[in-house]
Design brief:
Layout: H1 4-36, E1 71-78, E2 84-89, E3 99-104, H2 106-112, H3 114-118, E4 122-124, E5 127-133, H4 142-152, H5 164-173, H6 182-194, H7 209-218, H8 225-234, E6 238-239, E7 244-245, E8 254-256, E9 262-264, H9 273-295, H10 303-324, H11 330-339, H12 349-374
Parallel strand pairs: 1-3, 2-5
Antiparallel strand pairs: 2-3, 4-5, 6-7, 8-9
Helix pairs in contact: 4-5, 5-6, 7-8, 8-9, 9-12, 11-12
Protein name: BTB domain-containing protein
Organism: Paxillus rubicundulus Ve08.2h10
Region (Disordered): 34-61
């Protein structure tokens, strides 16, 4: 009995360090598990754990049912020496999609963006770096903002050779009604114009015609609008009743962009009712103007040359136009007429030169008439 207290004391001395060790190991495991998580899910708006400044390094989001939207930290544009955190909605159509956070250099953004210079920065005691929120009502797509940062940090600079979606994204996000970067917006407009050449002589446009026209109208880029309307109408599978050209690859209503960010594309590929009506009118006017030109062999000052045109016109012009679909492509068809070796067919050089001059004038005249048919103003 006299040894009981001593044994108890000894046992206590043994258990206490052991308990401390167990707690220490548990805390170490908990800390390790916390730092290895990709993204912290907000549980309490006042919790320090929900602050972007305390984000763990990985960008992948963790979402627990019944909690607030997840937090995403961008894996590229999160700099250790960044001086401002920018918060943008990951998906403007889904408030539960959470936000994307960027830690960038405030001076770079302020140098270019009128919006950033005037924005009120949020600052809290638990976060040493101020935060700027991009209001959802501005309509800024987070993927567009990522493209802007790609330009500002020289990862993907603006140029006419850059991908169309990159130039289009920066054109939108730099506009006065979004983040308002005047010099960047001006450069984006120049690159955008260079991507879509115009007439009056034959030219070629690639894809993205509907979205390009929508942007050209929205931002008053009049220099390329006529060419875009022409290209839309000249697309062989253009369907005016549907108001959409099937020449481009169809896209889903949304697609996943950088880091799983939802990018809404559906609205960018549908023509407005006004544009549909313009295309219909342009198609009708072109047919009325150009079909007689194709189906009528031209006359010349020399009867012999006129007879040669009459003999060769069906084979070299009409049949070719029907076979290759250029019957309703006047600029291209007139260019083809100029390229035919009429001297080799027996026409005299004087008549050939005269006709080629007339076909050039018809290209220029058609291009000028299109302003009236489309109801466009050529002044910026």
């Amino acid at each position: 009995m006299t040894q009981g207290p001593a044994n108890s004391i000894g046992l206590a001395r043994t258990l206490i360090p052991l308990s401390i060790a167990v707690v220490g190991v548990g805390w170490k495991l908990l800390s390790s598990g916390t730092t290895s998580q990709s993204t912290i899910t907000k549980k309490d708006p006042q919790s320090e754990q929900s602050e972007p400044g305390d984000f763990p390094p990985a960008p992948e989001a963790l979402r627990i049912p019944g909690t607030l939207p997840p937090i995403h930290r961008h894996h590229t544009y999160w700099f250790d020496d960044g001086s401002v955190i920018v918060r943008a909605s990951s998906d403007l159509r889904d408030t539960q999609a959470g936000n994307m956070y960027f830690k960038i250099h405030k001076s770079l953004l302020h140098r270019h963006s009128n919006f950033a210079r005037l924005a009120v920065l949020e600052s809290e005691h638990s976060r040493s770096i101020p935060m700027m929120t991009i209001p959802p009502e501005l309509g800024v797509q987070v993927q567009d903002f990522i493209s802007l940062l790609g330009h500002l940090y020289h990862d993907t600079p603006l140029s006419p050779e850059a991908p169309f979606q990159h130039v289009a994204a920066i054109l939108r996000v730099s506009s006065p009604n979004q983040l308002d970067l005047p010099s960047v917006h001006s450069l984006a407009k120049s690159c955008f114009e260079a991507m879509f050449p115009s007439g009056p002589y034959a030219f070629v446009h690639g894809n993205h015609l509907e979205e390009a026209l929508s942007l050209a109208v929205s931002y008053n880029i009049t220099s390329i609008q006529k060419g875009l309307y022409y290209s839309l109408v000249m697309t062989t599978d253009f369907e005016p009743d549907m108001g959409v050209s099937q020449s481009e690859n169809p896209v889903a209503s949304s697609t996943l962009g950088d880091e799983g960010v939802s990018v809404d594309l559906s609205a960018r590929h549908i023509l407005s009712p006004a544009d549909i009506e313009r295309c219909r009118k342009l198609m009708a006017e072109i047919v009325e103007f150009f079909v007689p030109v194709v189906f009528t062999a031209p006359a010349t000052p020399h009867m012999v040359c006129t007879d040669i045109f009459a003999d060769k016109w069906m084979q070299l012009v009409i049949q070719s136009a029907i076979e290759d679909g250029s019957l309703y492509k006047p600029l291209e068809m007139l260019e083809q007429l100029k390229q035919i070796d009429w001297e080799a067919e027996g026409l005299c050089p004087t008549c050939v030169q005269e006709k080629r001059g007339e076909w050039t004038e018809q290209q220029e005249g058609l291009w000028e008439m299109m302003d009236g048919w489309l109801g466009l103003s050529t002044e910026e």
